[in-house]
Amino acid sequence: MSFLNKMFGRSDKAAPVSTGEAIQKLRETEEMLNKKQDFLEKKIDVEMAAARKNAKTNKRAALQALKRKKRYEKNLQQIDGTLSTIEMQREALESANTNTAVLTTMNDAAK
């Protein structure tokens, strides 16, 4: 496999990402997921309104709206899980970054 990587110009090692860049990327992903969350919540409200509107007159349309609402809720739940994971990762990186800065300062002070 490494022969093919060398042949087509792909390096064996990717450039390491700094903690600051990783934290920034996680924040951007968090913002994007929060926007998607807001969008899905609005879609859920729209589908619920459509289901209520069609509840007496058009049962098939009401059921379809409820199915879409349920699918949106499932997607929203997945996003919630992803967001909590990203928050934990970001906080761990920030904590590690702070610890590194403190240890560097203590090392400089000891010299």
Give me the secondary-structure topology.
Elements lengths: L1 H6 L11 H36 L4 H52 L1
Helix pairs in contact: 2-3
Structure description:
By secondary structure, the protein is mostly helical. It contains three helices and no strands. Helix 2 packs antiparallel against helix 3.
| Strand count | 0
Give me the secondary-structure category: mainly alpha
Low-confidence stretches: none
Mean pLDDT: 89
* Global shape: elongated
State the major sheet. Answer: none
Measured by DSSP, the beta-strand proportion falls in under 5%
* Helical stretch tally: 3
Distance between the termini: 48 Å
| String of helices and strands | HHH
- Radius of gyration over all CA atoms, rounded: 24 Å
Provide the helix percentage.
over 70%
